[in-house]
Amino acid sequence: MNGHTVAMNVVLTGFMGTGKTTVGQILATRLDLTFVDTDVVIESRHGPIPEIFANEGEAAFRSMERNIAAEIGADEGLVVATGGRLMLDQDARTSLEASGRVFCLAADVDELISRLVAAAQERPLLDVDDPAQAIRGLLTERAAQYAAFEQVDTSGRSPEAIADDIVTRLAE
Hints:
Blueprint: E1 9-14, H1 20-31, E2 34-37, H2 38-46, H3 49-56, H4 58-73, E3 78-81, H5 90-99, E4 100-106, H6 109-116, H7 131-146, E5 150-153, H8 159-171
Parallel strand pairs: 1-3, 1-4, 2-3, 4-5
């Protein structure tokens, strides 16, 4: 798809650990678009996400996500990696769907657990006694909402293969 113009943004959503940032960076390079990670934008403006959760609470963080989504939705030529819950917020979803095609990266629960448990302390929602159980619970809670988006399975696949899959879909 090199040389082709993507007239819309490409938005990657899905549960934490599905590869949104890694795949997004590869995709942006392949499509000659600018990569934006909503969590990185928030951290650059407000500090580390675990500190935001600890000091201001989850509601404040979600408000920051909505504001970033509105900003990004007004732009174009972007590959956007969203925080795992951002697109489950209706206002954020509306902002980003208006300017982009959304792909939901997914992986089976055992693979997500193996990807995430080692670094659970860096993720506020998993900084609990049993991160594996937290992952299962959050996946169950969010399953129906994630299912509303075009699915891309990342289980057992390289980030390059996942990016290739999305590039192919964009060309269709």
